[in-house]
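Is iron/sulfur cluster placement plausible here? Inputs below.
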Amino acid sequence: MTAKGCSFNGGNCNQVIDPCKGCNRSKEYQSGWYCSAAPDPSVKWKYGNCNLATHTTMTVKQEKAKLNPIKASKRGNK
Ligand code: SF4
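Reply from A.M.:
I modeled the complex. Tokens:
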């Protein structure tokens, strides 16, 4: 979605969904709130956090930090 309109699906972008709240890529247009990076935000959240979101970076980092000790303990058992 850009100021000129949407190039997706014949000019119909889908509006942002609840998890997009707080993301810097969501923008308010005359017809509602749209994502400037993804034409259909619900698809971006279908399989977990949106990879383009600007407000979830911390969560992703925390998940990675949690995984590392598990990997480390598995390595230690071998
Ligand atoms: S980048 Fe992702 S989280 Fe942000 S508004 Fe777009 S779809 Fe939503």
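Short version: Residues 18 and 26 are 11 Å apart (CA to CA).
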